[in-house]
Design a protein that fits this description.
Blueprint (H helix, E strand, L loop, with lengths): L2 H8 L18 H16 L3 E4 L5 E5 L8 E7 L12 H14 L8 E6 L12 H7 L4 H6 L8 H7 L11 H5 L1 E9 L4 H5 L3 E7 L1 E10 L3 E2 L11 H17 L5 E10 L5 E2 L2 E10 L2 H21 L3 E10 L2 E2 L2 H10 L5 E4 L4 H5 L5 E6 L15 H20 L1
Parallel strand pairs: 3-4, 3-5, 5-15, 6-14
Antiparallel strand pairs: 1-2, 2-4, 6-13, 6-15, 7-11, 7-12, 8-10, 9-11
Helix pairs in contact: 1-3, 3-13, 9-10
The protein binds (2S)-amino(hydroxy)ethanoic acid and manganese (II) ion (3 copies).
């Protein structure tokens, strides 16, 4: 079965008619449907499937005679709201296609596929929630207390999704069973388009974090409240967002985004009493990110005061810059001598695992270079080339 046809099947799950693209939050019915799709494909290939206490689905190819830590690949099936069809699913479908190629190779090591839940953090606000739980990057107590936009706690959602919150948390034994992890992912930029190659080896992941800003003012009637003396948190937030944009513009390589803003109560004829907005901030140097956060906190305080409001800034997640293991990159480049190396500004579960075991990534060309949008794209031929490259790399690592 081709990667493209598997992507076609996945594309029938979680389409978002309102926003376009796909909306696939973690640990819910859509996620369950996607997991069942994956489990069906894995079982049909003779893989042993299990779902761990953190909700990660593992599929193992462990024929008799294979020994030692497994070579694992995989990615995620959840999406951002209105996301594209490749961010995550391309890595999972390519992993299944790679297994089809590897099964006849009589490799000495077991091969595994991992499907990580809530990689986007779209529902509970923390990116890579599954792999962070697995590695201990987030304490289960903190994770279980996270709430989604409806006020549902992760503990309740996980329990409804068939998990036992009491068993969640770091699993060093599971990590020890992995000799190397290689994630294939659609490129979320135009690097490969400009270089004219279908596949690249990843060199690094930009450090990135998320902060929630809550601004409180005075709610009131839009018609009976004169402009003088208003304490409008939405106006304060607007000034803050522009100031954050200007700060990032003035800092080479920085990226700052506010894509989510929620006024309370959210009425057209109501001056909001509060507004929450989230900042996604990224920079290759973790020290610069920290300095930018300090500047953001200061400007938020100054603007809030000027607008007669109060404000808080709370860190929700923070991921340091990742430089992938040089030895592993060398092995991948030996397997794929024509493939260039590219860094990425996008976070991945591979970035979380990189601090715990030998980890690498492959990127596959995206002709539009656009991601987190229905315009994300990967041509069928490149998708197949990616799966062949992944099989090549996994086979080499299994024989190493
Ligand atoms: O936000 C990211 O960089 C990734 O897509 N989760
Ligand atoms: Mn993404
Ligand atoms: Mn992704
Ligand atoms: Mn009225």
């Amino acid at each position: 079965m081709t990667v493209a046809s598997m992507l076609g099947e996945i594309g029938a799950i979680g389409a978002d008619a309102t926003r376009g693209g796909y909306s696939r939050p973690g640990y819910c019915a859509v996620d369950r449907e996607l997991r069942e799709w994956f489990e069906g494909h894995a079982i049909r290939r003779g893989l042993d499937v299990e779902r761990d206490a953190n909700g990660i689905v593992w599929a193992w190819w462990r024929p008799p005679g294979t020994t030692g830590p497994a070579i694992v690949t995989g990615s995620h099936l959840d999406s951002v709201p209105g996301g594209g069809g490749y961010d995550g699913p391309l890595g999972v479908a390519s992993a299944l296609a790679a297994i089809d190629l590897l099964k006849s190779m009589a490799l000495p090591r077991p091969i595994g596929i991992a499907v990580f839940p809530e990689e986007e953090g779209s529902r509970f606000g923390v990116a890579c929630l599954g792999s962070r739980l697995l590695t201990g990057a987030i304490a289960p107590e903190r994770a279980l207390a996270l709430k989604d936009a409806e006020g549902d706690t992760f503990a309740d959602a996980a329990a409804r999704d068939g998990l036992d919150p009491a068993r969640m948390g770091a699993d060093p034994a599971s990590l020890a069973g992995i000799g190397a992890f290689v994630e294939l992912h659609v490129e979320q930029g135009r690097g490969l388009v400009d270089l004219g190659h279908p596949v690249a080896v990843a060199s690094s992941i930009l450090g990135h974090g998320r902060w929630r800003v809550s601004v409180d003012g005075q709610g009131n009637h839009a018609g009976t409240t004169l402009m003088q003396g208003r304490r409008d948190p939405v106006v304060a937030a607007a000034s803050m967002i522009l100031a954050i944009r200007d700060l990032a513009r003035a800092t080479p390589d920085a990226r700052a985004t506010v894509g989510r803003l929620e006024p309370v109560p959210g009425g057209t004829n109501v001056i909001a009493s509060r507004v929450d907005f989230w900042i996604d901030l990224r920079h290759p140097d973790d020290l610069v990110t920290a300095a930018l956060v300090t500047r953001v906190r200061d400007l938020v305080d100054v603007i809030a005061l000027a607008e007669g409001c109060t404000a808080t800034v709370r860190e929700e997640s923070l991921s340091p810059t990742v430089d992938f293991d040089l030895g592993l990159r060398r092995q991948l480049r030996a397997a794929l001598p024509d493939a260039p190396e590219l860094g990425t500004g996008a976070g991945h579960d591979a970035g979380v695992l990189a601090g715990h075991l030998p980890t690498a990534m492959l990127f596959v060309r995206n002709p539009t270079g656009v991601s987190h949008s229905p315009e994300e794209l990967c041509e069928d031929a490149d998708a197949e080339a990616g799966a062949v490259a992944l099989a090549q790399v996994l086979g080499d690592l299994a024989r190493a």
